Amino acid sequence: MSVKEATRVTAPARTAPAAGRPQRKRGRDGQWWIPWLFLAPALVLFVYFKFIPMAQAIGMSVQEVRPYLGNRWVGGANYAEILGDGGFRSAAWNTVVLAVGQTAGSMILGFCLALLVEGQTRKLSFIRSAAFLPVVVPLAVTAELWRIMYHPTGDGLINQVIGLVGLGPSGFINDPHTSLASIAVTGIWRGAPYDMMIFLAGLAGIDRGLYEAATVDGASTWKRIVHVTLPGLRPVFAILFVLAAVRGFRVFTEVFLLTNGGPNGSTEVVMTLIYKLGLEQSRLGVGSAGAVLLFAATLVLTVCVQLLRRRRSA
């Protein structure tokens, strides 16, 4: 018996599919609704507490909101009023400066922390958990702690520390010249650990063979970071830039709790201005117009970053 004949004898015969029996398709095409069933509670909450208020804000932005009297259509008058307000332009500038400072600071500090704590040892795991604590601490608690540390007298904690190197006491959040920078430092301290964790995930995806090849070629640590680490983290930088920028544009709680826009409007941002216009001055139409403008600016920034990413990857 030849090899071919033996193979034919020992190989199992393929049975033809029975007539009339439907073949099962791969996947779960018939159960497409199961993932949506799990997502339904969250989607309902998002629609009710986020998307419906967003639609109502867009509607109020073109109306004069008069409680119990009925709203009156004013068209673009609210937008013209808030765009022509010097306070809004100042708040927008403060928002941009604060967003740029917090975005750059948190990304740089988060990247440095990620390089320092990268590894698999237990000690590094503990250090990573400790460094991530500012993110999980409630923002109100964080703001109150920094307000205490920013005490403007010589007895303040930070003033005592800088006094050790011969620097005089600073007013920090009580000084118009340093208040915005002080809030930026608070935001960087809170946002850097979040960026650190995303950088760590990105570092884990870089091929270690590239580092070994660079080491064999005699590249220094700095050159390995510049020519291997940074190119490998380019998608992570793009994602973090969008997240940090949106976080900076929507800054509210720390400003509201630390300075409430003072002193003399030096830390007034768009979110605190919208809050004052809508809830303190009952100018809900003008405040809604400011909220729509902030949303549009955030959307344009996100779309531009995504287009740049696609153009570079193409």
From TrEMBL:
Transmembrane domains' residue ranges: 32-51, 96-117, 232-252, 286-308
Transmembrane listed as a keyword: yes
One family name in Pfam for this protein: BPD_transp_1
Superkingdom as given in the UniProt entry: Bacteria
Low complexity biased stretches: 8-21
Bilayer topology: Multi-pass membrane protein
Compartments it resides in: Cell membrane
CDD domains per the UniProt record, alphabetical: TM_PBP2
Residue span(s) of domain ABC transmembrane type-1: 92-305
Keyword annotations from UniProtKB, A to Z: Cell membrane, Membrane, Transmembrane, Transmembrane helix, Transport
InterPro entries for the chain: ABC_transporter_permease, MetI-like, MetI-like_sf
Translocase keyword on record: no
Chain intervals for the UniProt region annotation (Disordered): 1-26
Family: Belongs to the binding-protein-dependent transport system permease family.
Name of the protein this chain belongs to: Sugar ABC transporter permease
Organism: Kribbella karoonensis
